[in-house]
Description:
The structure holds two protein chains of two kinds.
Chain A: H1 7-15, E1 18-19, H2 22-34, H3 39-50, E2 57-58, H4 60-75, E3 91-96, H5 103-116, E4 121-124, H6 133-144, E5 148-149, H7 157-171, E6 175-178, H8 188-204, E7 211-217, H9 223-235, E8 239-243, H10 253-261, E9 265-269, E10 277-279, H11 282-289
Parallel strand pairs in A: 3-6, 3-7, 4-5, 4-6, 7-8, 8-9
Antiparallel strand pairs in A: 1-2, 9-10
Chain B: H1 2-14, H2 24-40, H3 45-59, H4 70-86, E1 101-106, H5 113-126, E2 132-136, H6 144-155, E3 158-159, H7 168-181, E4 186-190, H8 199-212, E5 216-222, H9 229-240, E6 244-248, H10 257-266, E7 270-274, E8 282-284, H11 287-295, H12 298-306
Helix pairs in contact in B: 1-2, 1-4, 2-3, 3-4, 4-11, 4-12, 5-6, 7-8, 9-10
Amino acid sequence: xxxxxxxxxxxxxxxxxxxxxxxxxxxxxxxxxxxxxxxxxxxxxxxxxxxxxxxxxxxxxxxxxxxxxxxxxxxxxxxxxxxxxxxxxxxxxxxxxxxxxxxxxxxxxxxxxxxxxxxxxxxxxxxxxxxxxxxxxxxxxxxxxxxxxxxxxxxxxxxxxxxxxxxxxxxxxxxxxxxxxxxxxxxxxxxxxxxxxxxxxxxxxxxxxxxxxxxxxxxxxxxxxxxxxxxxxxxxxxxxxxxxxxxxxxxxxxxxxxxxxxxxxxxxxxxxxxxxxxxxxxxxxxxxxxxxxx
Amino acid sequence: xxxxxxxxxxxxxxxxxxxxxxxxxxxxxxxxxxxxxxxxxxxxxxxxxxxxxxxxxxxxxxxxxxxxxxxxxxxxxxxxxxxxxxxxxxxxxxxxxxxxxxxxxxxxxxxxxxxxxxxxxxxxxxxxxxxxxxxxxxxxxxxxxxxxxxxxxxxxxxxxxxxxxxxxxxxxxxxxxxxxxxxxxxxxxxxxxxxxxxxxxxxxxxxxxxxxxxxxxxxxxxxxxxxxxxxxxxxxxxxxxxxxxxxxxxxxxxxxxxxxxxxxxxxxxxxxxxxxxxxxxxxxxxxxxxxxxxxxxxxxxxxxxxx
Lengths: 294, 307
Ligand SMILES: Nc1nc2c(ncn2[C@@H]2O[C@H](COP(=O)(O)OP(=O)(O)OP(=O)(O)O)[C@@H](O)[C@H]2O)c(=O)[nH]1
Ligand SMILES: Nc1nc2c(ncn2[C@@H]2O[C@H](COP(=O)(O)OP(=O)(O)OP(=O)(O)O)[C@@H](O)[C@H]2O)c(=O)[nH]1
Ligand SMILES: [Mg+2]
Ligand SMILES: [Mg+2]
């Protein structure tokens, strides 16, 4: 039926059990490639789905379920909430990523969540580079009644981060969220700045930052692998947040990323308002990748 | 990864000692590797398929030039089809209309619309001596209007004064009026980011278009975009009819396959490239450069060209 274009044949193909063959596995692989898993990971997962099921009669819905289960199996162990109650006070979170991925907005959402849970939160406007980046974070601070440490555009970001952690310690805050300017991972001089921010923050608290979150845009394709690798190496990323999953991109690159880097995935962003942050759940994510509705 | 492709392709063909026409079997083996390479470069699956078919049609039976290997020959054909698909002719921004000429910027959240708006304004102002006005229609993202105002001061281009509480359509109308009354040549309209499945915001975008009759509607998109590139380009184009594409973040280490996807599904030209956060980081589009990035085999291509 695969080679036929008639609607009737298509329907029959969907509603009749078919023998699982290489054509069907190719179709599955395509589903995964369209979700940005990349060729190698897509092929590997399709192969696992085929294993032991060759020539058995299956329905396409059944196969999709198996597919989702395989993806869930990869991601499941890494779906971990971000724990800020480790006894560190303040718990210092540095937020990093490429330009426009959603760092500042994610900080607003996290601040909303943490203060909603009764924690005292301080925001640090560490993006001293981009036009009106400071003002963007200050508006989030006002909305949430969270204080914001900031300096004028062009100021030294590491000095600002130092001030913020020090202030949080003096004020007895529970969490500090440090925003940073977006940067592409192949810009060595900008990556060196991140390293400097971390070194300077450690002058206030040797154990800080306690979490380094890399914010990934779900729309981005294979380049996300390089983002995780290089931000991971330079900034010591401890966990991931994936934004913009309210669009049509599925963010399947997370599967390849997890295969390779084994980093916890904490949250997903599903919109632009304070409430649009959800814990990452492997099952839901996997079902969306496999194209299972609901 | 791409060094790998070039090795694999030569490897496949090096086993063939004979010269002459490329056989269908040889070509199919090579195209399997090409397909993989294009997908790794983030070219969308459906675009890869039709692309590979096109290459196959041209390669099978093609005569191999004496001094190159069949593998190198296929690479050259792939490269040529890539450039054709990307649009061989450069198409600059078109200002050929009665002033004030409106240019509307649209795209997903965080794609680089505001930054690109200011970059284009600077270029039109400095290189083409146009009197330019910028207006931010983004009433949604915190400090979006201020961002454009700051950039306007940086590049020495006027921005429409901010009036809090106006809708995007009202701002668009006010911008047109101000531009007309104050003798501006061009008015650039920066809009809020939106996902193409957000019906309310897509409707708003259509209303902005109706209110401002833009001469150019530029889709700003991240060069690092993955498979979703086709969905977003198609949706924006179907809804308002884009006149061109601007790719941002091309200075990243991504392969930029999204360029091919978006051009192929919309048929609309890529007009400009954003290559950095700075205001002068705006480049003209050169298809051969993007083709070289996607394929990563510029050496082989020039070798065949010289042969
Ligand atoms: N649809 C959607 N939009 C988002 C999400 N997260 C952030 N955004 C939007 O994406 C755009 C960029 O977000 P920012 O938070 O400014 O991104 P950033 O990483 O701080 O950007 P730079 O500081 O410029 O590098 C804004 O328009 C946000 O509203 C999300 O989960 N879904
Ligand atoms: N590296 C790089 N960064 C860019 C480029 N173009 C824009 N940016 C950055 O990308 C981020 C987002 O750019 P904006 O211009 O705010 O994007 P936008 O599309 O207006 O975002 P929203 O209005 O929130 O939808 C900023 O940090 C910009 O500095 C580019 O060509 N290269
Ligand atoms: Mg930011
Ligand atoms: Mg903007």
